[in-house]
Amino acid sequence: MTKSGMLSLFIMGAGQLRNKQKGKALFFFSIQLVYVLIEILTSSIVSGGLPNQPKAWGYGFFRKGLWGFFTLGETTGGRFRDNSPVLMIEGLIVILLLGILIFFWIMNIRDANQTAIEYEKSGQIKSSKEYFKHVFETSFAYVVSGPSLVLLLLISIMPILFAFFTAFTNYDAYHNPPADLIDWVGLGNFVKVVQLPGWRTTFVGVAIWTLVWAIIATFTTFFGGLFLALVVNNHRVRFKKIWRTILILPWAIPGMVSLLVFKNFFNQTYGPLNRMLGMNIPWLNDPTLAKVTLIAVNFWLGVPYFMMLMTGILTSFDKTIYEAARVDGANKKQIFWRVTFPILLSQVMPLLIMSFAGNFNNFGAVFFLTNGSPRNIAYEYAGHTDILITWIYKMTKDFKMYNMASIMSILIFLLIGGISTWNFMRTDAFKED
Question: What range(s) does the ABC transmembrane type-1 domain occupy (predicted)?
Fold first, then answer.
């Protein structure tokens, strides 16, 4: 490392100043100065001699944030008691801001070092004005999107990190801040999922049903929509616009409204369907029948989307392909399965994968129709029709098991992300890109 790089290692911009690039030196030094001033000013503000104040109040913004993140608080009573989740959030904000500082610190060292090496080789150094002009021209998109990226880190990434780190704490109904402090437990919660029979049985059972539900819900709506699109677009069918309008109505009605209507429609005691049949069928109270009913209602809601999608794709097909197939002696069945369907599948496969991911986390269909019922006494906080996302919702809202819910969120991300990525990379659309 050159002398300029060594100087920038301790004081940002010092190496640039040695390289006679005052503009760059001022830019990098001002970034470090902002962080130092924030730490100094917040330290002086909070250490103003308040009675009975905990020692952490003497810390500045960054030191207090790191202290809060690693300790999650020390004081439980009194006016200045610690709130563990708030301390974790503040700590995450500090870590993200320090990450930005580290990025500019590394950038500052590399720039000072490379400039010094170039000067030794060529005997010339670009001015700060030329440097900033070059950066603006070559990295315009990054410069403009920089502020948005910072907001993205604080608004979108930070809550995800909070949920992730909650999985490594004992944040549950028995440790409820601010009355109680929460502590780091490491991989203890993950061990519970593997070792404790109740949690293991629940996770395996709910995960299997979630996977089965996502596969069936996706392929039934896909092939149902394809079938209706072929029927409606058949040359023998008259009044095509009227039929399309009727078939698209389930998609036009808000899904939540439809699900609540179906919930009353399939009610075992006073539901219209059982009254018309004169029977007492437990549509939503029998474990197997409730799952079948859920799939049937989802089919009714999801088919119009795929029908309109398939209709648009089918009408855009090159007709000469069919003429060539007929000349080669192919019949209608062979034309569909060997010409139409492969082309259609290659075009909709990315959307099919997205639909699978959507059904995997289809909270509304399960929650508004069955709410996870009927109850399963072998499960922890879950019913027979609960999928992973509704199980997580129950654990957070109804039972305050935030740590276990965070674990399930991580596992969902790994599962659905892995499956979707693997399938998407195998599609023709990805290979073409």
Answer: 207-420
